[in-house]
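Case study.
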Amino acid sequence: MSTTTTTPGSASAAVALSAVTKVYGRGADAVVALDRVSLDVAPGEFVCLVGASGCGKSTLLNLVAGLDTVSGGGIQVGDDARPGLMFQEPALFPWLTVGANVEVPLKLRGLPAADRKARVAELLDTVHLGDFARRRPHELSGGMRQRVALARTLALDTPVLLMDEPFGALDAMTRDSLHDELERLWTGRNAAGTPLTVLFVTHNVREAARLADRIVLLSSRPGRVIYETRVDVSRPRRIDSPEVAAVAADVTDRLRAEVGRHGH
Ligand SMILES: Nc1ncnc2c1ncn2[C@@H]1O[C@H](COP(=O)(O)OP(=O)(O)OP(=O)(O)O)[C@@H](O)[C@H]1O
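After joint prediction, the assembly is written out as follows.
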């Protein structure tokens, strides 16, 4: 296993999991989804979690998001920040315009109306949807809807972004351009001194190699960290570059070996 930048339990981590175990159900029906997973994500780091289907990736993300409670171990999110969450489905409010969707978190945060308007415009510009504020979600493509969801998550002004297969339902071209946008946005935040920490779940190893500073591979159920590797490929990256392909090949080999051991 390659070395990590942070040691589990380090106080400076943006997200720290220490020996996290999750068991669903009880007795004979109990399912151990995660088994003593320790992982530190440094502020501003982009970590991709990969693993076979059902290995506990979404469970881990939901625990970090506070949507569920651990059965053992502990999770700390730096400065007690509330992470922003993004899923495969954009989950926009269909009756609201694009602008009003992005405004929801700002309203919840109690921002005055004038500030909200300016911030919505800024966020929509960030995801290249400045001209679409008055449209409704059904008028947009899948990729555009996912960009609205990203803008709405960013409106939370959170330093931690949790993404669960956010681009899994998109075609390859659209996914490509969203990778570019996410990388640009993330690089910009880090360069501006307002680090954005990303924990990104995917079963697409290429996508992980395209995006991550570090890839963490979970074993088949129960999920344990079995391998991790730094992705020392300069940015901006291309998903079809030989460097990204080489990282993806290494992780795919290990994932295959793991799936082969378990038969799923
Ligand atoms: N609420 C629940 N109750 C019982 N079992 C659950 C629950 N949620 C998840 N599980 C089980 O825990 C295991 C891990 O599920 P999880 O969804 O976290 O895996 P995953 O790695 O995200 O899978 P996939 O890649 O297929 O989305 C699976 O065996 C799943 O059936």
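Observations recorded in class. Residues 24-25, 31, 33, 51, 53-59, 203, 221 surround adenosine-5'-triphosphate (CB under 6 Å). The first strand starts at residue 15 and ends at 24. We will return to this complex in the next lecture.
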